[in-house]
C-alpha cells in the first residue's frame, strides 16, 4: 500500500501544477491580440507549459491506476499499456465506462503531443486540458487509498 500512497501523493502534486498552469494560461488566453509580440509569445509559452504538464499528469495518472489495481484491488494485470490499464479499471469498476472513454481520448491526445506539433493541434489540446484535469482529479480523489492520505 505504500507504493500506492506514494503514487497518489505524486499525482496529487502534479495535478496542482497543472491547475496552476491552467489558471495562468487562462489569464493570457483571453487577452485580445495586442501589438506587443511579447504578450503573444508569453501566452504561447504558457499554452505549451500547460500541454507539458498535461503530458506528465496523464503519464502519472495511468501509472497510478495500474499500481492501484495491482495493490489495492489485487488484480493481476497482463497489460502494461495506458489503454489496457484504463480498460482494466473500467472492468474492475474503478471508473465508469464514460470516464474510460474520456480517459482513452485523453491518452490519444497525450500521445499526439509527443509525435506531432501543429498550432491547431496544440490549441485543441490546450482547450481540452481543463476537462482532462477534472477527469483525472475526480478519479484520483475517488480512489479508496486517496482518502487515507
Would you mind describing this structure in some detail?
By secondary structure, this protein is mainly alpha-helical. It is 78% helix and 0% strand. Helix 2 packs across helix 4 and helix 2 packs parallel to helix 5. The chain is elongated, with a radius of gyration of 17 Å. The N and C termini lie close together (11 Å).
What structural keywords apply?
149 residues, Four Helix Bundle (Hemerythrin (Met), subunit A), 5 helices, mainly alpha, 78% helix
CATH superfamily: Nucleotidyltransferases  domain 2
Structure annotation, total helices = 5
**Distance between termini?**
11 Å
In terms of DSSP E residues, the strand content is: under 5%
Q: In terms of per-residue confidence, which ranges show pLDDT below 50 for 5 or more consecutive residues?
A: none
Mean pLDDT: 90
Query: Helix-strand pattern, N to C?
Result: HHHHH
Structural class: mainly alpha
For the record, the CATH class is Mainly Alpha
Helix content: over 70%
Largest sheet: none
Dominant shape: elongated
* Tally of separate domains: 1
Number of strands: 0
CATH architectural label? Up-down Bundle
And the CATH topology?
Four Helix Bundle (Hemerythrin (Met), subunit A)
Radius of gyration: 17 Å
List the helices and strands and how they pair.
Blueprint: H1 2-29, H2 37-71, H3 82-91, H4 97-115, H5 119-142
Compact summary:
The protein is mainly α. The chain contains five helices and no strands. Helix content is 78%, strand content 0%.
Amino acid at each position: 500500500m505504500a507504493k500506492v500512497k506514494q503514487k497518489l501523493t505524486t499525482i496529487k502534486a502534479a495535478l496542482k501544477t497543472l491547475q496552476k498552469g491552467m489558471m495562468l494560461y487562462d489569464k493570457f488566453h483571453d487577452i485580445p491580440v495586442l501589438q506587443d509580440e511579447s504578450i503573444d509569445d508569453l501566452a504561447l509559452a504558457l499554452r505549451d507549459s500547460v500541454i507539458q504538464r498535461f503530458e506528465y499528469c496523464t503519464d502519472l495518472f495511468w501509472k497510478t491506476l495500474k499500481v492501484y489495481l495491482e495493490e489495492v484491488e489485487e488484480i493481476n494485470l497482463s497489460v502494461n499499456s495506458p489503454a489496457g490499464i484504463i480498460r482494466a479499471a473500467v472492468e474492475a469498476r474503478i471508473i465508469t465506462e464514460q470516464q474510460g472513454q474520456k480517459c482513452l481520448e485523453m491518452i490519444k491526445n497525450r500521445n499526439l503531443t509527443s509525435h506531432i506539433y501543429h498550432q491547431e493541434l496544440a490549441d485543441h489540446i490546450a482547450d481540452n486540458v481543463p476537462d482532462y484535469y477534472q477527469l483525472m482529479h475526480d478519479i484520483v480523489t475517488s480512489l479508496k487509498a486517496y482518502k487515507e492520505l
